């Protein structure tokens, strides 16, 4: 599969809900439709809730991956303005 | 708009909403709202718009705080009795949200200064308690083309309507002329349930935010009537009157009118 190169990356380690989603949403808002956002986080609840909320808002979740004992990487493609 | 950490926390529940987001919150922060009256309606309207982070709020009222106000006018307190209401409200609102610029105008609005006072504002909210002011504010908003969110309360009943000049009805399409002095009792004469202005003011503040955001359906061409005793909300359609004296095709009112004479405008 082709490697996805995100247009924007944010590190929200240390943040908890709802600020994890607030930061992710503001980042998506600042991007163009079709671009991909990479989110690095360490709050497990947000690894579940951010993808769900992003889909509710019409965005596409491309990847949810636990990369080590504490951290997750999410890839979200902006599909909706 | 770049939010500070405090602002991210303060407005997080707004930013999360799909209809608001960071962009909508920025629109709220850039908005300027003019509130007529710092009484039963002006207090909750100003309070919630301050909480929402509306950038600039002007509030005009000539009265001072009295003990009898405290049953419903939630921005005031025993500590501000005797103080101008607008100053009391300004202190309360600034304590809630220092982001918001509050402009306190201690005066009675008149036909000579209203157009100048509202000219730099995006939206006007009428929370006045008397007919001369209600008609003056309506006519001025129609002439100036300013959106107006009008509210009124008495006893257990309240009304809200949103006037978008050029698009929908105005207050005179609904009621052509003020009633004769003395016909409609004032709150002072007839009483008012203290929580009623909270409901109506909350609805007015909601209309203001939806106008700012450009989201949802506002009460354009409609009057919402709330009966607190029966717990009933009714929506009444209000067509634009083509022969309305101020917003009709051939308006006869082209200058503002002061109806003050004969009306008791005491609090």
Roughly what percent helix of chain B? 25-40%
The third-level CATH topology of chain B is Rossmann fold
CATH superfamily of chain B: NAD(P)-binding Rossmann-like Domain
The strand count of chain A comes to 4
Percentage of β-strand residues of chain A: 25-35%
The helix-strand sequence of chain B is HHHEHEHEHEHEEHHHEE
The description of the largest β-sheet of chain B is: 8 strands, mixed
* Mass-distribution shape of chain A: globular
Total number of domains of chain A: 1
- Placed side by side, the strands forming the largest sheet of chain A appear as 1-2-4-3
Mean pLDDT of chain B: 95
**Count of separate structural domains of chain B:** 1
> Mean pLDDT score of chain A, rounded?
95
Strands of the widest sheet of chain B, in order across it, are: 3-2-1-4-5-6-7-8
The H-level CATH homologous superfamily of chain A, spelled out, is TusA-like domain
Low-pLDDT residue intervals, each spanning 5 or more residues of chain B: none
Summing up helix and strand content along with how strands pair, one would put the structural category of chain A as alpha+beta
- Indicate the overall shape of chain B: globular
Would you give an account of this structure?
The complex is a heterodimer of chains A (81) and B (267). Chain A has 81 residues and is an alpha+beta fold. Chain A has a single domain (8-77), classed as Translation Initiation Factor IF3, CATH 3.30.110.40. Chain A is built from 2 helices and 4 strands. Chain A has a 4-stranded mixed beta sheet, covered by helices on one side. In chain A, helix 1 (19-29) crosses helix 2. Chain A is globular. The longest helix of chain B has 18 residues, at 196-213. Chain B is built from 10 helices and 8 strands. Chain B is of the alpha/beta class and 267 residues long. The model of chain B has no long low-confidence stretch (mean pLDDT 95). In chain B, helix 4 packs parallel to helix 5 and helix 4 crosses helix 10. Chain B has one domain: 3-Layer(aba) Sandwich (Rossmann fold).
